[in-house]
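Suppose a colleague, Dr. K., hands you the sequence of a protein chain of 760 amino acids and asks what its three-dimensional shape might be. Before reaching for any lab equipment, you can write down a predicted structure in token form. Begin with the sequence itself:
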Amino acid sequence: MKIDRRSFLAFVIGGAAGTALSPLPYKLTDDLSIWSQNWPWTPVPPDGEVSYVDSTCTLCPGGCGISVRKVDQRAVKIEGMKGHPVNDGGICLLGLSGLQLLYGPTRVQQPLQRTGRRGEGRWRAISWPEAISKVAANMREIRAADKPHAVGCILTSDRGTVPFLFDRFLTAYGSPNLMRTPSFLDSYELVLHVMQGVQAMAGFDLENATFVLSFGSGLIDGWSSPVRLFRANSAWRRNHAKIIQVEPRLSNTAAKADQWIAIRPGTEAALALGMAHVIIRESLYNNEFVENSAFGFSGWTDKEGQSHTGFKELVLGEYGPDKVSRITGVKSDEIVSLARGFARASRPLALTGRGRGLTPGSTGEYMAVHALNALVGNINRPGGIWTLPEPDYTSWPELEMDAVAAHGVQRGSIDGAGSKQFPFTRSLLNRLPEVLNAGKGNGLQMLMIHGANPCYTLPDSKAVVEAFGRIPFVVSFSSYMDETARNADLILPNHTYLERYEDVPAPAGLSKPFIGLTRPVVPPQFNTRHVGDVVLQLAKTLGGSVGRSLPWGSYEDCLKETLRDKWRTLEDKGFWHQPDFKPPAGAAAFETASQKFEFFATAIHAEKRKDPDALPHFKPVEPEGDSSAYPLILIPYDSMRLAAGVIGTPPFMIKTVEDTVLKGVHVLVEVNPETAKKLGLAEGKTAVLETPKGRITVKIHLFDGIMPDVIAMPRGLGHSAYDKYLAGKGVNFNEMIGPVQDPISGLDAAWGIHARLQKA
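The predicted structure, expressed as tokens, is then:
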């Protein structure tokens, strides 16, 4: 049997991916056991009664159920919860490492006040009453100056009772500045709004899809809910579903797919529209859906007599396979074959959101990919993309606002979300550093951060630190000494997820309504406090309408009252869900002006934008930098062996990182051998990588699985905080790239950056 080089690479890397996704090899477990005995903080449980506590993991957006084994009051092992609708007994490396985060040295053990310069790491311990008093005093002073809008808050999510408490607290105080960390779900939220007219979350019925077309989504590299996707991948193999991965680099997902389509980075929207061209030209689309449930497929004339181009005319006129091939680097016959296979599948699903989906993207790209689902009529149907209603289980007393609060919230969010310029977007945290550093708006006098580490996770992280340095008072609620906590003035540490009650609604991408519950597996190990209780205490200390708007005596009281009839189920099972949920079908699925799915988004057109912006189209997102000075393109990649979000990679996971990713303290950059030869670079050699954002020293890893003139670097390294097992290893990719603003959403649409590489 003959196999070409691409197939050989997929075979080799796919085997490695299979090992990474399988239960931990005994040798690795043994190595870890020996290695971990050298840690001075390794817990040694006493003999005693063994028990299990079911809970929910919150270390990533996946929302997996976990079962924690205890000996007396000591947690000794975390396993996946059997029968859980998300992971059904499975667990990933990060979830398995949770005990290191519970008992490890990176915990903030008590309230701390900064004594040195920001980032210097000099602190003094203070009491909880003193800490809360300091925050309240600052907030009183800001409010007395009639500037409640100068207070902001950054959360990892704006869903669930804790985010709802922050939102209610800020609104009663008078601030509109509740911001959340961005992800691919932001872009999907916007696209569902403008093309379907719904305020909903995107769910993907991946388990029942027979043809999955992924535009760069790392389905087994941590995208959405990782363990759920591992299980789905196994089901696809059993059911002979076809998986196609489109991306410029051979990831683990691409290696395990049925077909890897190498594409020039940033041209994914063009490929989607080229496929649409073939599907329409050959009449392979779902005629019933297009005729009865879609608007803007064909051109039309509005009431004012203005003619508008339809989606059909657009793609047939501008996105023929030959033209798209020149744009994307994908062969014309491959585009045609891909389109036919997708359209003829019984339950095809197209999706996007690069890597783990930690960043949003171009609105045009998301609209183009979503248009493919509409062409085959697989919206809110088995194996397709579903709309999930926003969590609506909070039915709290009416909010009380005084004149100061009413005036403050009318000022609009400092990041521009919801403004006339960006009316469709709920949060634009990526814009905050530029706004602050440019001195635009009214600035912020105080910033609170909970469940987020923007000084590490946002692009152009140096600019983020600089922006935070302009805020007089920064409060972190982090359980760990991460980069953002190190740059705060006050740290009020939250309990970890193994020490607290909290609801966990709607894991990323799940296709059924779901609420998980974290519960105290062990008592708080240090002098920490539940962030919900801190918010309630702050409200009580401020008093007035703010205090009356948050009347609960404790967070646990608030949680039980909020969940009401669901509480008993959550206590008994550890989760609540609707396995028989069916999304709205037919006309009920669409709440647009036309009451149909809109290929031509009238919501965008109504904002007086040019007509092309209302149609899915390919408008290249240009990476930062001059191609003559920086001839290469640097892109990031994600790995299940590195945590790249809020949580730093625990020592357990660092042990599993390959030496082709991290060698000692040096990060390796993947380079195609053809590119390396041209630059005079060789395997393992030291080189200097430079982008418009910075200059670093790296090592070279030759990799046939990346396109020529494209180079790749992992996310999740380069921490300046945490412990000696993580800090100082590699480089944070976000130091090397800056945001590129999408003109429609305002979200970050950057997928890479121009770079150059030369011998050290």
